[in-house]
Amino acid sequence: MSLDNAAQMTDPREEALERAMARYQYSGDALIEVLHAAQQLYGYLSAPLLRKIARRLMLPPSRVLGVATFYHLFRFAPAQHHSAVVCLGTACYAAGGTDLMATLRRQDGDGGWTIEAGRCVGSCGLAPIVIYDGKPMSKVTRAQLEARIKETHDSGNTAPDAGR
Amino acid sequence: MTAETLRQTRDAELERRKGIKNRIACCTVAGCESAGSGEVRAALEREAAAQGRAGEVEVRGTGCMGWCSRGPLVRCSSNDTIYAEVTPADAPALVSGDAGRFEGRALTTEHPFYAGQRRLILRNSGHADPERIADYIAQGGYQGLLKAVTAMTPPDIVAEVKRSRLRGRGGAGYPTGLKWELVARHPSTVSYVVCNADEGDPGAFMNRSVLEGDPHRVLEGMAIAGRAAGAEQGYIYARGESPLAIERIRTAIEQARREGLLGSRIFDSNFQFQIDLRIGAGAYVCGEETALIKSIEGKRGQPAPRPPYPPESGLWGHPTLINNVETFANIPAIIENGGDWFASIGTASSPGTKVFAVAGRVQRTGLVEVPIGTTLRTILSDICGGVPEGYEFKAAQTGGPAGGCIPAPFLDLPMDYDSLTRIGTMMGSGGLIVMDTSTCMVDVARFFMEFCMDESCGKCIPCRAGTVQMHSILERITRGEGSEADFWMLEELSALLREASLCGLGMAAPNPVLSTMRHFRGEYEAHVREHHCPAGHCPIHASEEVHS
Predict the structure, then answer these.
(1) What pLDDT, on the 0 to 100 scale, is given for residue B31?
(2) Distance between CA B380 and CA B374 in Å, rounded?
(3) Which residue of B has its CA nearest to A124?
(4) E-only strand ranges, B227-352
(5) Which residue of B has its CA nearest to A66?
(6) Among 3.30.450.40, 3.40.30.10, 3.40.50.720, 2.40.50.100, what is the CATH number of A82-154?
(7) How far is Cα B194 from Cα B293, in angstroms, rounded to an integer?
(8) For position A110, what pLDDT does the model report?
(9) Between A and B, how many residue pairs show a Cβ–Cβ distance under 8 A?
């Protein structure tokens, strides 16, 4: 508990966000840049964080929420322990991306996963692609993916990004 | 930087290279990276040191070498050969120059994949280190800007670009010179140059590869545009999903600033130009120019009615010159070699080369740059090795969600803007996806409609509601529950979206449907009348059981 308090008092993320806003002279035009910076620091955009950005950039909160929700890359809830992005660009779709998506969905019984359909990642020559816990897997077959999932489960389902 | 220091930098780099016997270039971009090029590069560096050849062997990361499906690719300058499917275990042989172990994996420039290409935009990609400005300068970089600033007036530059007859590489093919002229002639004192690097078409990764492999070429093209249009500020709007491209642009901008190639008093003249990077956040519609402008201004990326067009009123209401990455990448060579030189490549109405991202059911997939007007057959059969054994070619899809498909009877069609439009598809940004007979064309149309439905920004009703309606009809047909009336409704809705949508996304959304209905009508009819998917892809039987 005391550790948490100490961390809050001198949260380096706050300073970093302040620096990011200062770099753009707190201009409302830089809202998207600031949102990128905030998400990178905090992992996702919480309501208090969005309100704070609105205050600092002197924008109506509606504008900040409106912009943040317009773009796909912004998240409003913390990421799960594991993540998988299945590319569903044309080449990956034609090579069976949806089947891989279904495979991932099936095993997500405990809900510890962030599973997303990705827009083309641009490695179409190696379709289908799955970005598994941040690492790209290419020419993925269902069997390969299942083996990889089993591996993750067997290793105790520990978060790869624990401590972040 | 002055003309003199540019020459010195070039000479110094060329001099330095003389001492190096073998420059080993590792592709470090997406395709090869996911195949493990990072480990290969580390192994090569370790090996060069271990064999005591660190001075004569230089290991560098570079951009795309084209044949992505055989990555990781490594190029040795000593014999100008590319080695495919390299593993860390190959490092000792590559460093010592023992080519014996690469049976079947050594690709020379005579290999059909490379021999059939003409690389102008990708000239440095796979040769030069994109993270070193000296590499670009040594390859003749920034000579175009030098000429534009010291030996040409802005109207000269516009005239040269007009003479080249370069057409915008973003898809629509608008003459670049005309666009530049509009901005240059505008009396406003403030204007902007914007590079559209928001390449969002699924299956298209040419722009990203240019930025990852040769970012300075794009910066140079933008600076020349700035000089021609009287702009002092440029923006690159890059796709948030391409972290490496973003990193490389950042590095390149920083280096160019440090060397005085961006900033004030470029080449000791009174010309000044800055470039800033703006990062998109995953909205396909932002590839549309008015939406992109809104996004740079920090707003929701929703398009605005045109006119006024951006050359009159763009960023913050000022005249704005927007071109695509590949368009800007063509500029330095046009200025250096002249518009007539450029116009002699390709076809009369569409000069120059085009980079295609070839994917799907062909032997060799990756990036292919050919003169415009090269036939589809040449690209697919000669360069890409054709469809693999056991599969049969059905169609090639171009232009992404705004394009259409080219069926087998049109294989000898020259790939230029006008020929493609004539058969109901478009050049688009350059994605080229090959489909075999196991792909259902109705499902392809449904797939693209789903994409447009998800990406519709919601501002205008024809696009917002029309894409949803069209998608549900197409889905019904793929389930085997369509009716004859659906054909009529699809055509009616297509006409409506084309006529009434606010921007290109909605106007072009029906294209894949119309194109597949035109060339593969029989397949639609089989789904509707016989409840049968000829490609064997759609799960019709399952749903029939449920309903009976």
Answers:
(1) 80
(2) 11
(3) B359
(4) 233-238, 274-279, 320-324
(5) B300
(6) 3.40.30.10
(7) 9
(8) 64
(9) 130
